[in-house]
Amino acid sequence: MTDFHIRINQRLGDFRLNVDLQGPAGVTALFGPSGAGKTSVINAIAGLTQPDDAFIKIGDRVLTDTANGTNVRPHLRHIGYVFQDARLFPTKTVRANLEYPAQFTDDDIPLDPITEMLGMAHLLDRYPRDLSGGEAQRVAIGRALMSAPQVLLMDEPLASLDQARRDEILPYLDALHRFSGTQIFYVSHSMAEVARLADTLVLMKNGKAIRQGPAADILSDPAAVPDIGVREAGAVLSAEIKSQDAGDGLSELATSAGKLLLPKLNAENGTQLRVRILATDIILSKDKPDGLSALNILPAVVTEIIEGAGPGVAVALKSGEDRLVARITRRSARALKLAQGIKCYAVVKTVSVAPGNIGQHKG
């Protein structure tokens, strides 16, 4: 089912944006390098720019259709926008910042559920100058939700934060769509954020969408490795916490292919997770390894091999019901005699999976 259709053809100086995007409701991430056109897309959705030729429909609402002259004014689009910087009113308390949008909507949005979801009830009487970067961004997200948006646009909302603050706010972003049910368009050049949050992924380059579709499909596609970047490429496993404290500072997770041990997680047993495993953090073995320090050894089957221009090879794997992608050298692939249908084992270092690569499952 298609819940949005965004077609934009727009000249911006020497740059041309030419995209045709379609997808379901949920979190759609726009990923690509600076200058790819990501922000230009969401500015057009917000009505902040007027494309030469465009059709923008989200849900059952047509926001822009240059063919028949439809162009809903920005303040009537029911869109919330979260920028890189929080842009809070410095002379207003957090509570006043959150309540500010109420004057522009007929909806009576209760404050308490939003402050609880974003973990900021204790911040309501503070001023922006007294907030950390992560706290300020949470307030900015809360303020956007208080406008009862039908669409939420997020333009690099974590870009100005250090890693500690990013890790602080990511769990709230995990919960955001489940809480609000709002269609979210999330712009980022951080694949860790995209893999953790996105249902649909759009890879952009030079004003064009070079790949689009379910995030899990693109992330596990070895052909997408050059577009994502060798160091950022990695697939997402579905997992469930079986033992939050399995001893030795580890948590035990169950995947469709077997057990996964990760550094201790702060979540209850039974919690469904998405775990991103980088392609460069997987070692392949034809035989089940013995005598290794690695604790995570998952059975897999090779489904595809793509050789790059350099010495690397991207190997697509089916592990249980999940898909992985590994990047190894061409020499190693030949030594292992890897081919489609070959059974092997994917070895993953326990400590290689960073906390930022583990998020709540969307299902």
Q: Could you please describe the fold and organization of this structure?
A:
It is a single chain. The chain has 9 helices and 21 strands. With 363 residues, the chain is an alpha+beta fold. Strands 7-8-9-3-10-11 form a 6-stranded mixed sheet, with helices on both faces. α4 (133-145) packs parallel to α5 (163-180). The longest helix is centred in the middle third of the chain and has 18 residues, at 163-180. The two termini are 17 Å apart. The mean pLDDT is 91.
User: Structural class of the secondary structure composition?
Assistant: alpha+beta
How many strands in all? 21
Unreliable sequence segments: none
How much beta, percentage-wise? 35-45%
- Average pLDDT rating: 91
Strand order of the largest sheet: 7-8-9-3-10-11
Q: Summarize the helix and strand pattern as letters.
A: EEEHEEEEHHHEHEHEEHHEEEEEEEEHEE
Instruction: State the helical fraction.
Output: 10-25%
Number of helices: 9
Radius of gyration: 22 Å
Overall outline: globular
Largest sheet at a glance?
6 strands, mixed
How does the SSE layout of this entry go?
Layout: E1 4-12, E2 15-23, E3 27-31, H1 38-46, E4 53-58, E5 61-65, E6 70-71, E7 79-82, H2 94-99, H3 111-117, H4 133-145, E8 151-155, H5 163-180, E9 183-188, H6 191-197, E10 200-205, E11 208-214, H7 215-219, H8 225-228, E12 234-243, E13 250-254, E14 259-263, E15 272-278, E16 282-285, E17 296-307, E18 312-319, E19 322-329, H9 330-336, E20 343-348, E21 358-360
Parallel strand pairs: 3-9, 3-10, 7-8, 8-9
Antiparallel strand pairs: 1-2, 1-4, 4-5, 5-6, 10-11, 12-13, 12-15, 13-14, 15-21, 16-20, 17-18, 17-20, 18-19
